[in-house]
Amino acid sequence: MVALYYSSRLSVVGLISHSIAIICTIFRLVYRGWMRHFWWEDAWAAFALVADVVCLACIWLDRVISAWALTIAFTIVLWAARMSVIFSIISVANHSGSKIHKQITYLIAVSFACMWAALLAQKISICEFHSCHMGKPVALSLLITDIIADASLVAAPLYLLKDVGLSRSRKILVQSAFGASLLITAITITHSILLLKVHNTNTLIFAHVKVSILPSSHCFAKSDRN
Questions:
Q1: What pLDDT shows up at residue 226?
Q2: How far apart are CA 103 and CA 105, in angstroms?
Q3: In terms of CB atoms within 10 Å, which of 9, 45, 100, 144 comes out highest?
Q4: pLDDT-flagged residues of the chain (< 50)
Q5: Looking at residue 131, what DSSP letter applies?
Q6: Listed residue (161, 130, 155, 126) closest to 142, CA to CA
Q7: pLDDT at 36
């Protein structure tokens, strides 16, 4: 079961990682609203924020309830954050003047939506019939979809940067998103290996850290869009 193992270490790591992600996202949304630059990537960030709060609350909720809630909330946080990143890239592609740039970024967004829906369906089915015990099929699905998604988030912006001029500060902010994608891929591999071998506290800790990295690292990536 997803939420079977609890410890003080899990509570501390979960509290710290989710709190950082939540605070950064709130700061980003407030700043973007104040600057009147609120766009689709910010709406996706807000959606991820709501699910992240649920993830944090699940650390102390009843285990049966939290198993279902975490299964859904983990997936929502991760993919909503990715949608936020790709829509940030789409906003750059829209001003690139290149039709193929737009097509590539929109295609990536559609593929994200499809993988998101497929993973949710798989996890909900397992919770329904196997008490949310995520085994090898889920581990393999997570590994494959995460690598595809994170590789896309790294490759697409790099392709755009060859033709689209950005200020130094914006390049640094965009590159931080690239770094987050690489980092979350590394954590995904570790998490998938743990899922393939054994379910314990470390598995759940990696899951909490995994869904916290992308929202917190990308929270300032679009703060300077004019």
A1: 46
A2: 6
A3: 45
A4: 1-4, 223-224, 226
A5: T
A6: 126
A7: 75
Residue 206: its H or E element: helix 201-217
- Distance in angstroms (rounded) separating the CA atoms of residues 195 and 190: 9
CB 16 within 8 A of CB 206: no
User: Over the range 158-187, which residues count as b (16 or more CB within 10 Å of their CB) and which as e?
Assistant: ebbeeeeeeeeebeebbeebbebbeebbeb
Q: And the tokens for 163?
A: 């033709």
- Which DSSP letter does residue 96 get? S
pLDDT value of position 100: 78
Residue 64 is predicted with a pLDDT of 64
The reported pLDDT for the residue numbered 117 is: 95
Provide the residue type at 199 as one letter. H
In the numeric block, the tokens 């994608």 are attached to 181
> Which two structure tokens, joined as six digits, stand for 22?
């939540």
CB 210 within 8 A of CB 187: yes
CB 42 within 8 A of CB 29: yes
